[in-house]
Amino acid sequence: MADTKRSLQTILRQLYFGDTVGSRAFRYALLLFDLVTIGYFIVSSMIDKDRIHHELDYAIAAVLALDYVARLIAERRRTKYLFSFTSLADLVVIVSLVAPAFFENFAFLRVVRMLRLMRSYHLLKELRQASKWFRRNEEIFQSGINLIVFIFVVTALVFVVENDRNANINNYLDALYFTVTTLTTTGFGDITMTDSVGRLMTVVIMIFGVALFLRLVQTIFRPAKVNLSCPDCGLNRHDPDAVHCKHCGRVLNIPTEGTWD
Q1: Is the pLDDT of residue 137 over 80?
Q2: Which pLDDT score, from 0 to 100, does residue 66 have?
Q3: Phi, psi for residue 184 in degrees, rounded to 5
Q4: For residues 67 and 199, what is the distance between their CA atoms, to the nearest angstrom?
Q5: d(CA 117, CA 162)
Q6: Residue 261 confidence (pLDDT)
Q7: Span 85-104, mean pLDDT?
Q8: How many Cβ atoms are within 10 Å of 181's Cβ, its own excluded?
Q9: Are strands 237-238 and 226-227 parallel, antiparallel or unpaired?
């Protein structure tokens, strides 16, 4: 029995943390599954507005529960994992898929399905190793992903909170339209918040949204830099062809492949 348990742990650790082609394919499949569940959330908000059918919710919850248990078995420090953000988010997602069938007051928990995209951040290390283009544009990529996750989460929140309060928000696309027009400060005015909660939420969207947009634009148009910490002063961003640290003058040895095309 103990040997079987150790063998299962070895297999799962290889799948979740290994560097083989099979383990990477497995993790990419998990990412694809996350994206599919997000797509399902968007579509279901339009074709099943009253949330009558929950069969697919149960199926997704079962897959997520298996993934959660498998990841728990694979972890070396299980107590730390149990109280990590990823673990708690997964538990809330599973509850959000099952609870609305019995307690409609828990419908707001569906919002955290979008947070499963955060798990895809674990693929950054693999992408750095696999793609030279990604290494050069990682900061732009991360800023873009942060913005996309923010838009998805806020849109879901707007939809769940305002669906029964605002006659102009009838599905996820309506909520997405309102979120994007608010984030970009376009504000066409065809969809407005009429309740105090909605207006407060709009203020929060504008404050955080503008900050994220500015960060993304700054990242895109700022000259390319490489991350290398200077041993003397600690400056960790330098020009790709820098020979000396601009802050303290220390000679730098920046790894390069000889081309920056």
Answers
A1: no
A2: 92
A3: -85, 0
A4: 38
A5: 23
A6: 47
A7: 74
A8: 15
A9: antiparallel
Enumerate residues 6+ apart whose C-beta is below 8 A from 62.
Answer: none
C-alpha dihedral, 96 to 99 to 104 to 107, nearest 10° = 0
Two structure tokens written together for 113: 């399905």
Q: Which of 37, 155, 47 is nearest to 94 (CA)?
A: 37
Stretch 119-144: mean pLDDT: 70
Write the DSSP string, 227-251. E---TTT---EE-TT-SB-TTT--B
Residue 113 binned pLDDT confidence (cut-offs 50, 70, 90): low
With beta carbons less than 8 A apart as the criterion, state whether 107 and 51 touch. yes
The pTM for the full model equals 0.67
Cβ–Cβ < 8 Å for 158, 114:
no
Both tokens of 101, joined, read: 């069938």
Spatial distance between the Cα atoms of 73 and 6, rounded to a whole number of angstroms: 10
Give the C-alpha separation, 143 to 149, whole Å: 10
If you average pLDDT over every residue of the chain, what do you get? 77
Inter-residue contact 167 to 145 (CB < 8 Å): no
Report the half-sphere exposure of 58 (CA within 13 A, side-chain side).
Answer: 6
Residues 6+ apart with CB under 8 A from 239: 223, 225, 226, 246
* Separation of alpha carbons 252 and 229, rounded Å: 9
